[in-house]
Amino acid sequence: MTKTERTLLSKGIRPTEMRSKIYKFLKRKQSAVSFSDLKKAFVQKSDTNKTANRTTFYRNLKTFEDKGLIHQVNDGSGEAKFAISDENAKGDYGIDLHMHFYCNRCQKTICLPNKISEGSLPDDYEVNDVNLVLKGICKKCGKL
């Protein structure tokens, strides 16, 4: 059994060939990936069954998100992006409590490593979702 298959199984996800490929693709990326970029990476121009592939991708991404394997980032670009979740960034609420950085120049969105403190939220509040995006120029683009 591969490391990818073990990871998927540990989250309660049946490791099909497509799920394994999608997970490996997302794992290799340094920045969050849009659905259209993911689809472009897998769907060949000669593929005549694009609707089924689109549905398959959406279903698999939804499964990954529901199981906490990935998280969705709304960076203000108009298209949701997806990134592998970091188990160490999850707080008491079971959701990723980290910030993201969106580069206005290269339009990439990256997960920042530091976790957000849960102590700033009053005890009688319950967090269901977090979407914190800092915007500016990334290190790579700043050198240009």
Radius of gyration (CA) equals: 16 Å
CATH domain class name: Mainly Alpha
Silhouette: globular
Number of strands: 6
Q: N-to-C terminal Cα separation, in Å?
A: 44 Å
CATH homologous superfamily descriptor:
Winged helix-like DNA-binding domain superfamily/Winged helix DNA-binding domain
Put simply, the count of helices is 5
Architecture (CATH level 2) name: Orthogonal Bundle
What level of helicity do the residues show?
25-40%
The helix/strand order is: HHEHHEEEEEH
Low-confidence stretches: none
Question: Strand pairing plus helix content: what structural class?
Answer: alpha+beta
Fill in the CATH topology. Arc Repressor Mutant, subunit A
Total tally of structural domains: 1
Strand content: 15-25%
Question: What does this 3D model show about the protein?
Answer:
- The protein has one domain: Arc Repressor Mutant, subunit A (Orthogonal Bundle).
- The chain is built from 5 helices and 6 strands; from the N terminus they run H-H-E-H-H-E-E-E-E-E-H.
- The strands form 2 sheets. It has a 3-stranded antiparallel beta sheet with strand order 1-3-2. A 3-stranded mixed beta sheet has the order 5-4-6, with no helix packed on it.
- The N and C termini lie far apart (44 Å).
